[in-house]
Backbone:
């Protein structure tokens, strides 16, 4: 479970996040939508323990990230916009290395199963990662999360730049992760993919959570209207 | 556990880097060449020393009946004993002189410098295993470790790594462990090659404390190279890209390994200039003649002889007075020679103190001094040889003067010793001093090396903590 309790982050006089509170239970995907600078990546960084909160707390499976960062991160998998892999290692070797950091022994067959479950083609397992496309890297990122048996998945623009087929495959992978009791927090600009994969969608504006929408209750065009209304409101206020 | 995983992955990346592996193979080959050249050169020096000693002995013993003072002028050579470790680090062997001519009336400096007979090649420093470890291996370390953090940052894997729950401290421990393993991989073949070469070096002289000296050499080079590993990790941690890390480390290597030691040598010479060689030769010549040119001194010799034997005139002496006077002149000149050499050695000591002080700026200076000291080839060991040779000279000249004094009767300079007497004049074999004799001499260099290691560790630790913070807020 992912939980934000009155989470606030200030950088000097600028408030990046203000009094953010939400909960993402297991088997649910919560998507944050918002313009650049809305505080989406700051939220991810707070849950990764990369930044300390100014007030409030970020909890992963009940563990306060600021107080127990290593324990919280041990339960968390993180997939950025561009999954970073060691280019000179193969996909399998990358997976083996990152899986080994969890401190638990993962058998080679489990690793292979993880790559298969993530949808990476078998002939790519032992190719060096320098030859991988972005979609293949994202799949290895998912395989790492599977091998780690993460209970929480944090995604920062994971489908940006993926072709439609790869993005569709990735959405399917996220649904499979949900089926494994994983709670997912994804930040994205992509309203349509967010609606496709998310259960609830939170709209962030200038560091505040202005609305939460249930994905099943709105059509794609309605979601766009809601989102743009908030953005225009922001633009109007700014003007 | 995590550190081991990170270290294993880092080494895997190093081994897959063809450029690093090519340089590694090249360094091992250069080392192999250096080991073979060093071993052969030391063994060849020792063979030449053996054959020169034999030739010197043969000529000495074959001189037939002869006046002992004439023989004392003809005299003998003291050949410097070379330690087997000279094949690892020749130190001052090339230019400090390999033999001292031990003659009457004159204390000669060591001659037969290898550098003088090496022709055009003397311009270049000898290729030795010590030089490879001091100069080339730090470059190999820089080449292997520059991507340590900078590569991870450029590829985005550092943030990925920190995002898995691994602490910045664990990443540093992993990087350090990888560096230590790499160091071990570099040092093991090099140490094994060096030990084999030293064992195979055929020298007659017994070097005291060979195991202690070898272990100290391994420790000194281990600490020296470890400080380079830490600097490489630190620089890599602060560099945004591989290229900037590589450039910074190459500049560091050039300045601290190549430039500073050269400038330090020039600075030491500028601060304490070498005395003029002609002036020294003149001083030595004047000392040799001082007694004979002074009627006052000669009179005091006569007076002492008469007092010693309780006679009123020189003619009443029961000994050959000419030989007595010769020995008197030797004993008069010995402390004067000692003073000139003490002053000359004082100049060298002042130059060495400058170098030793500057070793706080460059660890290469500290390690070079320690290495030659431990190998038994530095100036201190050379001075021990010249002092021992001088004592031997004084002893054999006295032996010959005594022979003439006691056995010449009225014959004086016409007296000829029995050819069997030459066998009583001992050959100079020389001995190598134990390490404990010079232990205090290298204290500052040890402190400088440890200070470098400590500073490198703090630098790396701070740089790595900063790198972790930088990644988190990206």
Residues:
């Amino acid at each position: 479970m992912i939980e934000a309790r009155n989470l606030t982050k200030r950088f000097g006089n600028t408030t990046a996040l203000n009094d953010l509170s939400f909960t993402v239970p297991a088997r649910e995907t919560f998507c944050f939508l918002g313009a650049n600078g809305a505080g989406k990546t700051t939220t991810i960084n707070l849950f990764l323990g990369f930044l300390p909160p100014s007030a409030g707390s970020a909890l992963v499976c009940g563990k306060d990230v600021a107080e127990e960062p290593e324990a919280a991160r041990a339960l968390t998998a993180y997939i950025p916009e561009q999954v970073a892999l060691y280019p000179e290692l193969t996909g399998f070797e990358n997976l083996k290395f990152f899986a080994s950091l969890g401190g638990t022994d993962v058998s080679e067959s489990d690793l292979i199963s993880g790559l298969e479950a993530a949808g990476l083609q078998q002939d790519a397992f032992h190719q060096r990662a320098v030859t991988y496309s972005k979609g293949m890297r994202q799949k290895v990122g998912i395989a790492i999360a599977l091998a780690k048996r993460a209970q929480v998945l944090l995604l920062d623009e994971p489908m940006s730049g993926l072709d439609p087929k790869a993005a569709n495959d990735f959405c399917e992978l996220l649904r499979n992760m949900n089926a494994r009791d994983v709670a997912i927090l994804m930040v994205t600009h992509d309203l349509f993919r967010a609606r496709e994969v998310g259960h609830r969608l939170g709209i962030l504006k200038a560091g505040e959570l202005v609305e939460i929408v249930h994905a099943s209750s709105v059509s794609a065009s309605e979601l766009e209207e809601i989102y743009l209304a908030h953005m225009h409101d922001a633009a109007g206020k700014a003007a | 556990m995590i550190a081991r995983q990170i270290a294993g992955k880092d080494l895997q990346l190093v081994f897959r880097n063809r450029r690093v592996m090519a340089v590694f193979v090249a360094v091992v080959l250069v080392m192999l060449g250096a080991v073979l050249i060093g071993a052969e050169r030391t063994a060849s020096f020792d063979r030449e020393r053996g054959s020169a000693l034999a030739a010197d002995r043969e000529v000495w013993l074959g001189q037939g009946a002869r006046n002992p003072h004439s023989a004392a002028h003809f005299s003998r050579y003291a050949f410097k004993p070379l330690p087997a470790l000279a094949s690892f680090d020749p130190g001052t062997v090339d230019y400090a002189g390999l033999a001292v001519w031990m003659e009457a009336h004159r204390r000669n400096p060591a001659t037969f410098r290898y550098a003088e007979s090496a022709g055009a090649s003397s311009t270049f420093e000898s290729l030795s295993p010590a030089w490879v470890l001091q100069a080339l291996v730090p470059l190999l370390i820089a080449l292997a470790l520059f991507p340590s953090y900078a590569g991870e940052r450029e590829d985005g894997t550092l943030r990925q790594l920190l995002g898995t729950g691994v602490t910045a401290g664990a990443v540093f421990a992993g990087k350090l462990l990888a560096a230590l393993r790499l160091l071990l991989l570099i040092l093991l073949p090099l140490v094994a090659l060096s030990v084999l070469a030293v064992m195979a070096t055929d020298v007659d002289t017994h070097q005291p404390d060979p195991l202690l000296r070898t272990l100290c050499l391994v420790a000194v080079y281990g600490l020296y190279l470890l400080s380079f590993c830490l600097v490489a990790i630190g620089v890599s941690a602060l560099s945004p890209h591989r290229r900037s890390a590589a450039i910074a480390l190459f500049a560091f290597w050039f300045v601290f390994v190549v430039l500073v030691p050269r400038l330090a040598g020039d600075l030491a010479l500028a601060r304490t200039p070498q005395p003029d060689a002609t002036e020294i030769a003149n001083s030595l010549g004047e000392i040799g003649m001082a007694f004979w040119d002074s009627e006052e001194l000669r009179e005091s010799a006569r007076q002492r002889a008469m007092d010693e034997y309780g006679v009123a005139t020189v003619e009443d002496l029961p000994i050959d007075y000419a030989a007595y006077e010769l020995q008197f002149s030797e004993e008069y000149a010995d402390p004067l020679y000692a003073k000139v050499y003490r002053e000359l050695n004082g100049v060298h000591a002042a130059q060495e103190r400058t170098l030793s002080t500057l070793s706080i700026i460059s660890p290469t200076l500290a390690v070079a001094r320690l290495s030659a000291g431990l190998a038994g080839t530095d100036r201190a060991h050379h001075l021990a040889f010249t002092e021992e040779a001088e004592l031997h000279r004084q002893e054999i000249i006295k032996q010959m003067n005594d022979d003439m004094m006691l056995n010449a009767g009225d014959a004086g300079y016409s007296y000829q010793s029995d050819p069997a007497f030459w066998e009583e004049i001992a050959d100079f074999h020389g001995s190598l001093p134990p390490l404990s004799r010079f232990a205090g001499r290298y204290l500052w260099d040890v402190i400088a090396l440890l200070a470098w290691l400590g500073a490198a560790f703090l630098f790396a630790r701070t740089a790595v903590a900063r790198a972790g913070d930088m990644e988190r807020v990206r």
Q: What stands out?
A: The first helix of chain B runs from residue 2 to 15.
